[in-house]
Structure prediction request, 597 residues.
Amino acid sequence: MKKRRITPAQWTLFGLSLIVVLVLAAVLFRGERGEGVKSTVGMSPPESPPEPAPAREAKTVLLFFLSEDDSLLHPEQREILSGPSIVEEAEQAVEELIRGSDKGYVSPLPPETKLRQLFVTKDGVAFVDLSREIMEKHPSGSSAELATVYSIVNTLAYNFKPIKKVFILVEGSEKETLGGHINLSQPFVPLYSLNAK
Amino acid sequence: MIGLNETTAKRLAHFSLLFFSLLSFAAAQPTLRVSAQDYDDFSRVIVTLPSALSTTLEKDGNLLLVRINSTSPFRLRTEPVKSRFIKSFSWVTSSDLYIIVIEVRHERFRQDSFQIEKKRQLVIDFYELTAPPAAEAAGMEAQQVPPEPEKKEETPPAVEAALPPVEGSPAAAKGIRTIVIDPGHGGLEVGAKGKFGTLEKDVTLAISLRLKALIEKNLAFHVELTRDRDMDVTLENRAAIANNHRAELFISIHANSSYRRNANGSETFFLSLNATDEEARRLAYLENNSADLDKPLATENKDDIMMILWDMAQSAYLKQSQRLAEIIQDELNSLLGTKDRGIKQAPFKVLTGVACPAVLVEAAFISNPEEERDLVQEAFQENVAQAIYRGLVSYIKLLS
Prediction:
């Protein structure tokens, strides 16, 4: 068998081309990154530096859970992380509502429910998009539906001033009702008469 | 970045365009004015139109809707209402339709209208009717019929001339009087389920059929059911059935359900306008600030307008619905022996569009095993029907 020898000249050529490739890659990569940074700066300042996350502080909110004894919504304090905007805070509040009460009250949101999305419009309407379990696992009575709707609405409106109304969506779309009773095709204003005194 | 600058510039341009067009509108745009004034025996509303436009009037409960078709935009100005009979003005608009909503203190009125100043002024006179239409229809027809036409012939001033078309809607009440009963849920939509397998849709139908029998046996009312067997009916259609039959009362029958089995008792609901209150405030705000806005509700299409007015249908009957709820709840308390959960207001879809006093009865909790057992018993179902029936009787007596 004849072994192919690599001559020193070939070695040099290989080394050179390797260097060229590396340099080119570096330049291209730098260029790309540079452009990336430029465009972020141009678009939205808050996102530009990956900020050393100013350790989000704790914030206390009041969640409203149902008591079956008086059919009213009872407040329960819960710590969430503050900011960066009320959207993140409102998301945590809804997730905590789903997680349930520590004091033995009833969460009128079935535990299987997931918060798909939450956003707040400029005129203060919070859209709360919940997964299908909010309907499928729901006991579907007037009292249960009232509790579900207003535990969300009262919790969000009570804790977050910019939220004036709440529109509840299921799997991304508008539903007539959860189970045949309370009208979901309009945004809700809070109804504090359902809260315990 | 260049792109962003461009859009910023475009936005600026748009804003300035909007600003100047608003300014020019404020200076030059024609205006529609609405004002009210009281006279000895009537209240007069004057609508001054920006040009000769045709208008149509429609009475809806305690509301009078004035529809104006106009393709050219105009501003609306209303003076503060200080009248013993006219409560408020509000209005909604879309691209070529303006609706002025005149809210009257109660629905017992008749109006008389004419257009003057080459159709540039619409004058609407509101007369208070002393007797409620129900009483008119119910009693003493033999005595009342003859004097009325005579009176018309004796006093034919301009004011009385337009009477016949106006009286159209109260006259409709003289036909067969109808109560609509709505058995909750049905078909695939089973409603709440009990621990022993009881379905809400079956309980509601059973109670409704008993109530229908009681009413038709004892009262001079026709009963229309939104469903008389196990079938799907949409919530909107239930309201539509009531309105199409010109129902005088609407009773929706349900069985309640909650998360824990200990929840129990009976309650009666009537509609709350929590969501639509806000819309009403928005309309009021726009009305008061219309000087600064050319077409405040331009983004809304006609469907939205119809929705707002449709919602107003039940809002005109809230007081009566509340009274009906109180009376029925009292009877439930005395006949059923269940816990009194009182009357409550909630934004029920099925009540929203009903154009008459309307309540929703939650007989008992199907999610409570003891009450579930009650709900399937014929004796208990009969008691629920009996309680609602007695409530209806007292309410109807109140009217006459």
